[in-house]
Specification:
The chain crosses the membrane at residues 6-30. With 76 residues, the protein is an alpha+beta fold. The chain has one helix at residues 2-20; strands at residues 29-32, 35-37, 40-42, 45-48. The chain has one domain (1-72). The strands form 2 sheets. A two-stranded antiparallel ribbon has the order 1-4. Strands 2-3 form a two-stranded antiparallel ribbon.
Length: 76
């Protein structure tokens, strides 16, 4: 009986830890509407969700923009 409880606890712990690995996988993006800037129209587009980190933007070196497939070029 005790062996079964330990095995059940182990399976639950493995499932919990495994599910936590996928928490950071979600892409956070924001749709930007088209607008005029200095007389030039900027097409609607998507950009990464604003936050205080520079390394997780689509334009940062090592990242790939999931919408157009371009690789990041900025080094921080």
């Amino acid at each position: 009986m005790r062996k079964n409880i330990i095995m059940l606890f182990f399976i639950i712990a493995v499932f919990f830890v495994g599910s936590m690995l996928f928490v950071g996988v979600a892409d956070a993006y924001v749709r930007v509407r088209g607008y005029f800037r200095g007389g030039t129209y900027v097409q609607p587009h998507y950009r990464s969700d604003p936050d205080s980190f520079k390394w997780n933007n689509y334009s940062t070196w090592g990242n790939i923009n999931p919408f157009d497939g371009r690789r990041g070029y900025k080094r921080y």
